[in-house]
Design brief:
This protein is mainly beta. The chain is 5% helix and 41% strand.
Length: 483
């Protein structure tokens, strides 16, 4: 008789395990719903972050690597599904947008931007153009200028700061440079500037279904920090370059405009009033009629906030509102952060009850919807970093199927502490919701405790895997974290 295999004893998690994680994000489903392309990152041999695009079939099977630039991400399908455009920093010093065929082969650079920073882009629905949000580096701070100074023995020029918006974590110093909107020809790669009226460069944009207009959510005030309620949605005529203001708007904020499939309405996230800015109240989902300016707040009678992002240290933080129109225009799907969980939800553009489409102590985060109504998603829980999944809508519920499992071997050998939820009343009557983690192997009755806090007011701790907290527990600490 062969000896039965004994189950290997699990070990505690360590800080060094972070170097072994394979982290995924931004799942973009193809228009026909057959493929999901996504970014996968890991720590490389030189202690650097290596990120490439991978692709997986929505019907199952192994995922395969799609690009190999090492600094690739933000994939977006062409409208016909034949190509994928993505941002890449493989060619220093200027990052560019590259295009690769679904059939594979070498990716080629499409854009020819000077040194600077691309924040985002989107194909026009007819596939002929791209709208690209780009910020050019100030001339005296380019790599070329730096090399010329070294050759001449010159010193680095001082940065003269005369605006409160001059740097950002993860972005560095940009002084007075601002993002502007450019139009790129998808065949030649030639670009031209088409919008620069947002003085902070914080604008968001979306194509109209007929590719003739671009909706832009912007603040054109000369002092937007003092006047944050002056956000408005404008329509940019692509051919003429002229902008017009959608009627019926009021003081407040607006972001992420998105046209309905018929082009008659625009959904956006925002707040109304001058006293409600800088996160003081919930951000709600709105729709506005493009011609008449008639507005409706779709989530105003709920306590839902479009900015309730769930925090984790094993994926990119996304604090912006996340929503998509259904292909038939009858529903708007949005990402709902609620009691530490993340769930897709939907509401009619005419108003009515919000339907939550998944349940359970997990993070179900969607990023894209195919023409056939399938969802490109990630799903994660307290004991696993997020993995790629596909969602299929059935009777107001989303059936979610996980497609990847990059970290299963590593986590099969690690012992983790399961979060236990609690609620407590404060002195002024508010209920505080949170979790605690207990050291799994300690027999002591008392433990040193760590209270983990986060900023806000709308981001939330919750149920996703959190490496830092598990490392503290593994080292004998009780961990408390609350919202």
């Amino acid at each position: 008789m062969p000896k039965s295999k004994t189950k290997a004893a699990k070990r505690l998690i360590t800080p060094e395990d972070l170097l072994k994680f394979h982290l995924v994000g931004d799942p973009q489903i193809s228009p026909d719903g057959k493929w999901i392309v996504f970014a996968k990152s890991h720590v490389g041999d030189k202690n650097d972050k290596v990120t490439n695009l991978w692709i997986v079939s929505t019907s199952g099977g192994d995922a395969r690597q799609f690009t190999s630039g090492g600094k690739d991400g933000s994939a977006r399908w062409s409208p016909d599904g034949g190509r994928v455009a993505f941002m890449s920093g493989r060619d220093k010093p200027a990052g560019q947008i590259f295009v690769i065929s679904l059939a594979g082969g070498e990716a080629t650079a499409l854009t020819k931007f000077p040194e600077g920073a691309i924040e985002g882009f989107d194909w026009s629905p007819d596939g002929k153009k791209m709208a690209v949000k780009f910020r050019e580096q100030e001339a005296e701070h380019t790599k070329k200028a730096e090399e010329e100074r070294k050759e001449k023995g010159l010193s680095t020029p001082a940065r003269v700061i005369d605006d409160v918006w001059y740097r950002l974590d993860g972005d560095g110093y940009f002084n007075t440079a601002r993002h502007k909107l450019y139009l790129v020809d998808t065949e030649t790669g030639e670009h031209k500037k088409i919008y620069d009226k947002d003085s902070m460069g914080w604008f968001s944009f979306a194509w109209s279904p007929d590719s003739k207009k671009i909706a832009i959510g912007a603040n054109t005030s000369k002092e937007p920090f003092k006047n944050p309620w002056k956000d408005r949605i404008y329509l940019l005529d692509v051919k003429s370059g002229k902008t017009s203001l959608i009627p019926g708007q009021v003081d407040g904020s607006c972001e992420a405009p998105a046209f309905s499939p018929d082009g008659k309405k625009i959904a956006y996230a925002g707040r109304e009033g001058r006293e409600s800015q800088w996160g003081a109240v919930n951000t709600h989902l709105h729709v506005i009629d493009v011609k008449t300016g008639k507005r409706k707040n779709l989530t105003g009678d709920t306590d839902y906030c479009m900015h309730a992002a769930t925090l984790s240290d094993t994926r990119e933080a996304g604090f912006g509102a996340n929503f998509r129109w259904s292909p038939d225009g009858k529903r708007i799907f949005f990402s709902l952060g609620w009691h530490g969980e993340t769930h897709p939800a939907s509401v009619s553009p005419a108003g009515g009850k919000v339907e939550v489409l998944t349940s359970g102590a997990k993070e179900y985060a969607f990023a894209s919807i195919s023409d056939s109504g399938l969802f490109g998603m990630t799903v994660g829980s307290w004991d696993r970093p997020n993995e790629i999944a596909v969602g299929k809508l059935s009777k107001n519920k989303l059936e979610v199927t996980k497609l990847t499992d990059f970290n299963s071997d590593l986590f099969s050998e690690i012992e983790l502490s399961k979060p236990e939820a609690f609620s407590t009343k404060t002195e002024d009557g508010w209920t505080v919701h949170g979790w605690f983690l207990k050291p799994t192997r300690s027999k002591k009755q008392k433990h040193p405790a760590v209270l983990e806090v986060h900023g806000g007011p709308h981001a939330q701790y919750g149920v996703p895997f959190f490496h830092e907290l598990q490392v503290l527990v593994a080292n004998g600490y009780m961990v408390f974290y609350a919202n």
